[in-house]
Write a structure and sequence with these properties.
214 residues; seven-stranded mixed β-sheet; 7 strands; alpha/beta
Length: 214
């Protein structure tokens, strides 16, 4: 067994355990859904939950529900009366995510939207203290531009997969649409004077962005 595998196991062994409903959701996703590795999972889920609990947002926007694991983790940080809006383009995943929203007891705090986020975001008349992007990598820049004015100064944005399996440092991969989308997004954020940002080298990379100016 490699040293990295042992370290990964050690990290999980020293991370608070996930709730039973999250563990069940993880297992059902791996049994029934194509590309189950898209699910946030235990470690990333705990990080999302911790960040949300530190921010204590009134409203959260998630772009890319998948089967609902990350939404459930993020929703833990909502203040009383808060709402999480989550958008998923694949309508076949709606029922599975909803099942676990209900099972967790958090369904009343989660609003599901189905369709293209680029069309849905302009219809949501809310300000979001926390945004999580984990959808089509080719559209990350579009999401960023659409949501920026909905984030108050001091608010946070998280973007998943910003290392894209290491392809961000492979010149030959830059011609791929998904890789190019991530590269353009990372450069867009890095060069935006209205934010400060850091990449967390967790799993496939999470960009943590704070809006500091309009």
């Amino acid at each position: 067994m490699s040293r990295q595998v042992l370290i990964d196991r050690y990290i999980l062994d020293h991370t608070s355990p996930e709730e039973d409903y999250l563990n069940e959701l993880d297992r059902e996703t791996h049994r029934k859904v194509l590309h189950p590795r898209m699910l946030s999972g235990h470690l990333q889920g705990q990080i999302l939950s911790m960040i949300s609990c530190m921010i204590r947002p009134k409203h959260i926007l998630e772009i890319g529900t998948f089967t609902g694991y990350s939404a459930l983790c993020l929703a833990k940080g909502l203040v009383g009366g808060g709402k999480l809006h989550t958008i998923e383009i694949d309508d076949e995943l709606h029922t599975l995510a909803q099942k676990y929203f209900l099972q967790s007891g958090m369904a009343n705090y989660i609003v599901q939207h189905t369709g293209d986020a680029r069309n849905i975001i302009p219809t949501i008349n809310e300000s979001f203290e926390l945004v999580f992007i984990d959808a089509d990598k080719r559209e990350y820049c579009d999401y960023y531009h659409l949501i920026f004015d909905h984030i108050p100064v001091g608010g946070f944005l998280l973007a998943d997969n910003v290392l894209w399996d290491g392809k961000v440092v492979e010149p030959e991969a830059a011609s791929e649409d998904q890789t190019r989308g991530i590269l353009e997004f990372n450069d867009l954020v890095q060069n935006d004077p209205r934010v400060r940002n850091v990449i967390l080298p967790v799993r496939d990379g999470i960009m943590l962005v704070q809006k500091v100016a309009e």
